[in-house]
Amino acid sequence: MRRAFAFLLAFTLALTAHSQTSALAPDPTPAANPARPTLSVPAVLPPTGYLQFEQGINRVVTSPSGTTAQTALNQATKIALTSRLLIQVLSQPFTYNTLFTPGGQPPTVKTENTGDIDLGTQIVLLKSTGPRPTIDIGYNGRVHTGTAANLDSGDFKQSLIFFFSGDLPHGTHYDSIYQFNEQRSVDNGSTIGNSPSHPVRRAQYVQTLSLTHPIFPKSTGGRLAFDVELEHYTQPLVTGTSHNQPTAVRADAVDLLLSMPFALRPNLVLDAAILRGLTSTSTQWQGTAGITWLVPHRLWPAKH
Question: Does residue 113 carry a pLDDT above 50?
């Protein structure tokens, strides 16, 4: 846990030092467009030609994957190649896990693992303003299989995602995604009626809705906001509750997330959030904190 926090602090200080000491003449700093800590990803892409880094640390308590507790680092690197095309790398470089082992001695074991690495793309299909949504389509595919549990989202080999974003009256912004995942039950060594050569493959559906509203806009200059998000996952391969009891009904996870992002600078956003699972097969509690940093130098000249 201490190593994880030290890593995140060192990374933040390194980014700040780089932005202050870079020999390049900086462009007028554009604003970052965070996709964390909510699961809902904005359909509006970050500024074209700028690298955007999103780092966070998660603390999880009680999950149906058999994970009693987990501390994890999460990282996303994104760049919009055009105003309609984004590519990204998603990874989980470190997790520290406490796992429940039924009938085991001791009943829990502690492990250090790495998570999956995914490559993805996001394409803007329709640009809009106001309540009419901007609509995107995206694809994520796994290029490296980690050994860490993936909690409510489960293991997925590939996913197709639709993104919707727009603005409501009185300054409220909304983001929503509809995601379709291919899950394979042997990816983390599971043997639920299958073998490595004949894995069980299931479709998983994910829906989210996130609402964001500024807090004290006059005193904070519009830099502080409040997010509330509702998340729903189907769980076709989950057979037990978060308290390790069998479940005979189809498993679904429903989560409520509350978060507060704060723009320290236009291109540097801090965030903190807490998530509460609302069903017996949801991860019961999650806490997260992190940063989104848009590198203030464009990688190639803008076209005039």
Answer: yes
CB 144 within 8 A of CB 156: no
193: which DSSP letter? Answer: S
Structural domain includes residue 299:
no
Q: How far apart are CA 50 and CA 41, in angstroms?
A: 18
Range of the domain at 38: 2-20+29-294
| Residues paired with 88 in a beta bridge | 78, 120
Q: Does residue 303 lie in a domain region?
A: no
**Residue 295 Cα to chain centre, angstroms:** 20
* Domain total of the chain: 1
Residue 138, amino acid: G
- Which residues neighbour 1 within 8 Å (Cβ) at sequence distance 6 or greater? 71, 96
Q: Which CATH number do you get for residue 166?
A: 2.40.160.40
- Digit-coded pLDDT (tens) for 119-149: 999 999 999 887 899 999 999 999 998 888 7
